[in-house]
Amino acid sequence: MALPEELADMLLGSIVDGQFPSESVLPSEGELAQKYGMSRLTVREAVRILRSQNIVSIHRGRGTFINPPQAWRSLAAVVRIEERRSPSGGVSRRLIEARRMVEIGAAQLAAVHRSKEDLESLAASIEEMRLANRQSQVELFVEADIAFHDVIMHATANMFIPFMFEPFGHLLIEARTETSAIPEIQVNAIAMHEAILEALISGDPKKSRDAMEAHMDQTENDLRRYVIDADQPAAQGANRDAP
C-alpha cells in the first residue's frame, strides 16, 4: 500500500473512531504531517483520496470538513463505520435485506429464461456444497454457494442484474464465511438451494420466487440463531425467560 493510501486509511480509522467527528474540521496539513510523521505532499494526496470518496469536503478559506457517513461514496468506508455503530450482525442483516430486493426477483425471472446449462451448473454447485460439507471445507462451501447464486443472476437474461451485486462481493464472502463455518447452517443452505433448483426446473416463476424468499428467511433466521444470539448469551437467556 502506497503511503498516501496508508495515511488515508489511518485518517478514515480516526474518523470512524470518532477522533474526527462528522462535520468537524480536519486538522491542517502541517498538523497531520507532524502527527503521522509524513510529508505535507503525502497528507495532501491522502486527503485527496478521502475527498474522491466524499468522506471529506474542502471549503476554501474554512478548511477540510468531515462529511456525514450517508454522503460517503465508498462502500468499504460505509461498512467500516456501520460495523462500529451496529450491534452484532447488523451489517449482515442489512446485506440480507439488500439480497432480498435483488435475488427474489432474480429467481422469478430466471425461472422463465434459465437454460439447460444453467440448471446443470446449479446442480453442480449443490453437489460441490455437499462435498465441501462432508469434508468440512468452509472456503469451498462458500465458493460453491456464491457460484450458485451467480448462475441465477446470469440466468435472468438481464445484463444489468449480475452487476448489481458486484460491489458487495467481498461482503458476501465475509458474511457467508462467518455463517458457513457452522455445520447446521450448511445443512440448511443445501436444503434451501435444492428447493430453489427444483422450482427453477419446474419453470414456475412464483415457485422460484417463493423458494428464494424462503431461503432468505432461513438465512436471516440462521444468522440470528447461530451468530447474533450466540454473541449475546445474556440477551438470549432473557428471551427464553420472557413470557
UniProtKB/TrEMBL annotation:
Gene3D superfamilies: GntR ligand-binding domain-like, Winged helix-like DNA-binding domain superfamily/Winged helix DNA-binding domain. GO terms for molecular function: DNA binding; DNA-binding transcription factor activity. It holds the Pfam family FCD. The keyword Transcription applies. It comes from the Bacteria. The keyword Ubl conjugation does not apply. Keywords: DNA-binding, Transcription, Transcription regulation. Residues 1-69 form the HTH gntR-type domain. PROSITE patterns: HTH_GNTR. PANTHER family: GNTR FAMILY REGULATORY PROTEIN, TRANSCRIPTIONAL REGULATOR, GNTR FAMILY. This is GntR family transcriptional regulator. The gene is lutR_4.
